[in-house]
Fold each of these.
Amino acid sequence: MHHFSDRLNAAIQNKKTPALVGLDPRFDWLPAEIVRSAESRHTTKAEIVAGAFEEFCFRIIDVVAPVVPAVKPQAAFFEEWGPAGCAALQRIIKKARSAGLVVICDAKRGDIGSTAEAYARGYLAGENPESAIWAADCLTVNPYLGSDTLEPFVNVATERGAGIYVLVRTSNPGAGTFQDRKTDGTNLYECVAGVVEELALKTKGAGNYGAIGAVVGATYPEELSQLRALMPHTPLLVPGYGSQGAGAGDVAGAFDEGGLGAIINSSRGINFAIRKSPYSEKFSPTEWEQAVEAATHDMISDLATHTPAGNLE
Ligand SMILES: O=c1ccn([C@@H]2O[C@H](COP(=O)(O)O)[C@@H](O)[C@H]2O)c(=O)[nH]1
């Protein structure tokens, strides 16, 4: 069985980029042709939305799979639409994996240990997509209930060659409300980082990184560099690039000297590139996939200017 971080790093090296495409569909922003097609096939609103999300994400996967290592579907946008949305998410994960992509399901789960175990078993398929119903390679996890609640995720991830990313320093404006709280001179996020690094070290693969990673926002570049140094064996998932205002310079501190150790997410900036300059001027609304492709290539080039080339050459 191959270790999660080793598989992810191989994918990053193969595609020569740490760019991660988020799949965050919004019904009101979908291309008209996709909405029309879903309306012709379904009757209820939930089925129409779910059908449209599925086609939209399938087509994004077709565009980005040749050039990026991984995708991150955001479960919330699918769960909002009930069973139809969840069924679409499941098929999207399957499609992304068949396209050779590493799939990180962003569902931010967490609960008391015995319940966390059910989340872990349900989401974390790791290397064998048949081993969990949601068939993800990796899941985002909320550590608020305590370090004992991370254990079931660690155990299942280790058994199945899967991974988790634990929320350490999130990208939102209010991240500091709880995460910056200090006890004995240590911030809460530094305390969580310490626990995560221990788990990363314990689950280390053939390379430098563990199966347990951390979510750290690109919108806090100083903390990002600090956490890279504090967590040398922890792979980072870095949201906040693009629509939330962070640029390639802000994420430079996330990488190790070989250019590994982090993947950088953009969701709206890629999914809905057609709605924004310069793509809205370059392409007509029906050419939205070309806009997705151009935005992905631009992100890859942008990141390359600030990523140590090292292992990505
Ligand atoms: O700290 C966090 C943790 C998760 N996210 C998620 O990432 C994407 C970001 O979307 P953009 O459109 O690129 O802003 C979204 O799914 C968030 O829920 C985050 O932004 N910050």
Amino acid sequence: MRYGEPDDLFDRPEVPVRPFEFDADVARVFPDMVRRSVPGYAELVGLAGLIARRVARPGTQCYDLGCSLGAVTRSILRHTAADVRVVAVDNAPAMVDGLRARLRDVEGADRVEPVCADVQSLSIERASLVVLNLTLQFIPLADRLALLRRIRAGLIPGGVLMLAEKVAVPTEQEGAFLQVLHEDFKRANGYSELAISRKRTALEQVLVPETIEMHEQRLAEAGFSRHCRWFQSLNFVAWVAWT
Ligand SMILES: C[S@@+](CC[C@H](N)C(=O)[O-])C[C@H]1O[C@@H](n2cnc3c(N)ncnc32)[C@H](O)[C@@H]1O
Ligand SMILES: O=C(O)C(=O)C[C@]1(C(=O)O)C=C[C@@H](O)C=C1
């Protein structure tokens, strides 16, 4: 399977729109899809590696939760030493197959443990870094706090969580403005009106964004002592949170 194909999944009017799923079709086009859909995606991936370089300690593990094809995993590998392991987890079999394929010629790939599992039932231990890059938004709302608490419990003292999410903007004018600009970003990246509208429908009830305030409140409730919001591009925001 090739994983670099152009994303035309939502350009087919004859295919009924169904709820978005990380299946083999999405895995095949994922690098193109995410680059053209998420403003700042390359920076998020690059910065995850730089954060790992600062916080990873010898003998500890970095977790890439909802790793898809492993862009963050590879970024962490590039910036960490041989005594740091990377646990790359996704519950979509097509993504984990793609991750393994894309790790084949990567230096240090023997430090990666690919895991096909639900992050909600994963044991997290000796973690110096946990990354949730655009993953928490797909976890049922009622389960998000419990997941963050388990992550917090699995981090070593001084360990950090990197969280990046699409956010909801509650104020009418600003919310509408950022949504329009995000759709302009997709248009500028070659997506058709049809594709933009069909994907919007497919993501409803599947990707459930929350406000910046809700995320920050939950980080505190999950036991993180402090957090820092370090990135925003349109309606995509990232934080680090410390144990
Ligand atoms: C938008 S993608 C993440 C992108 C990826 N982190 C990156 O930086 O390229 C969301 C991923 O989370 C995975 N995912 C969603 N819910 C999950 C769960 N409960 N357990 C494990 N993986 C999950 C999906 O299969 C998908 O690959
Ligand atoms: O919000 C959108 O329209 C998106 O396309 C965003 C998003 C994401 O944030 O995960 C949704 C699904 C794909 O995984 C790639 C990008």
